[in-house]
Amino acid sequence: xxxxxxxxxxxxxxxxxxxxxxxxxxxxxxxxxxxxxxxxxxxxxxxxxxxxxxxxxxxxxxxxxxxxxxxxxxxxxxxxxxxxxxxxxxxxxxxxxxxxxxxxxxxxxxxxxxxxxxxxxxxxxxxxxxxxxxxxxxxxxxxxxxxxxxxxxxxxxxxxxxxxxxxxxxxxxxxxxxxxxxxxxxxxxxxxxxxxxxxxxxxxxxxxxxxxxxxxxxxxxxxxxxxxxxxxxxxxxxxxxxxxxxxxxxxxxxxxxxxxxxxxxxxxxxxxxxxxxxxxxxxxxxxxxxxxxxxxxxxxxxxxxxxxxxxx
Length: 312
What we know:
- This protein is mainly alpha-helical.
- The protein is 84% helix and 0% strand.
- The chain contains twelve helices and no strands.
- The two termini are 39 Å apart.
- The mean pLDDT is 88.
């Protein structure tokens, strides 16, 4: 029954923990370093409130939907949120690739050179992350229809909207505040985000139900994300390639909103699929123009995959 929703993730996480622990212990000896622990706690403890605040923030929109709209709407919204979260999971996987280099450049180079180097290094990863988000946004209709009964099809637009929100989280994944040892600011920023989410969502949900919650969450996330971005840049300025980044994000947002509009306009499904494929093609062409999709990069990726396979 319902308790299975708790046991399932618990057992899955425990299994992953055991497997990783065994793998790490094979590679590294088990030791205790008191000084290293103290230094780590100075950085990590201020982040603890963020975890609790994050749980509240992730659930409060669904609570408000059930309170101000309907319990059924909260269930549909929850489904859309879970599917859109694929974007965040994908970005986290991409982060595992670029994070070591970001840390290396932060701590081994001076701020000016490091900020410039990191900015140029991260732009291709932004394109890769947005590519995954674009697929989820554009084809949310097909995903929902294939995976759920008709009663859940109202989640289609919610998936597209929340995918756009999760796509903006790329900038929040950069360790600028960790570098500056200002992790306590992260918890305060999380509180600001929750407050904005509540203030914006109450009228939005009251007027437009679960769709209002999705758009309200997107708006609140964009505002709080912008605040976090500005503050993080003050402590460690990454020289972002703004023109390329704006082009990537603008293309993604425009393609997604056009797709939502055409579906609400009840354009023939065959035409909508064709238009989606055109959008995917246009985004691929953008990647080629920016130099991120090339034969050389493909060969490098192929070599990396072969090396990983041989290492396994």
